Here is the input.
Amino acid sequence: MRAAGPVAGDVGVAFVGAGAFARGVLLPLFQGRPGISLRRVATAHGLTAFDAQRKFGFKDAGTEAGDVLADPLVHLVCIATRHDAHAALVVDALRAGKHVFVEKPLAIDESQLRTVESAAASSTGVLLVGFNRRFSPLAAAMRGAIEGRGPIVANYRVNAGALPPGHWLNDPEVGGGRIIGEGCHFVDFLAYLTGDAVIDSVEARCAGAARARAGRRHPARLLDGSVGQILYTAKGDPALGKERVEVHAGGASVVLDDFRSVEIVSGGKRRKIGAGGKGHAEEIAALLAAVKAGGPSPIALASLVATTRATLRVHEAISRAD
Here is the structure.
């Protein structure tokens, strides 16, 4: 295994996978950025890769991830494939001596997670999962308002909306299901608010007759005494907005409204912060700074693994209940 380390010149970036999210959100954050060289893009279908090359200016395009990993001028591999391929690509990239950014989830089962954990523990490469919400300026304001106030009590309501029938995310072998595929975002955010306290236990329940598709409530307990509840539903009206987080700690209350604003109530006074955003730009900036310096990762490996493992346990609990 070649060791990843600091990058002296331009950071050579490659993408494995270039679907709608990569094209619409991630790649524009790399394109034209000083100190970045878009080296390679590899997708399952060659036409997709060549189209991404044309649009974003990659130097090479193809269908083989192996060509990406063998390129000595690629320092950072960004993985944006469907979920079932994430873990194996992360392991291969780390073993090839690359820094790695992977869209969530890190793994869709425990076996995959253990393999990633082992590879990452023996690698000097930066590994970051796309838990962008914790990088939002609103997230920082929220954590700052409750920091040092002791254990938190949090409620995270996610009005996720319905997926079309047959969507790949609901395929357990490909997407892992919505809890694994998206729910990890919300587990990570609650962990972030506690300063990444260790998640001690989780519980999961489904509501209604169509339990697997309706509402899900996921209380999580952390070793610092904090308790967080995630209510994840596909049954709400989309006009409501997707996400609302309410946190209480040590006499302070903070409410995050759909990553558009944060209201802080403390000492009988109210303060509202309106700078929105889900943290994608800040996440990529932190990633590139870490890669340039050779580490550490903006999110510790222990936190990435704990969030993924807790999410898998929630999924398992729901599956048993069904």
Q: What stands out?
A: The chain has nine helices and 15 strands. The longest helix spans residues 301-321. The chain has two domains: 11-125, 133-281+310-321.
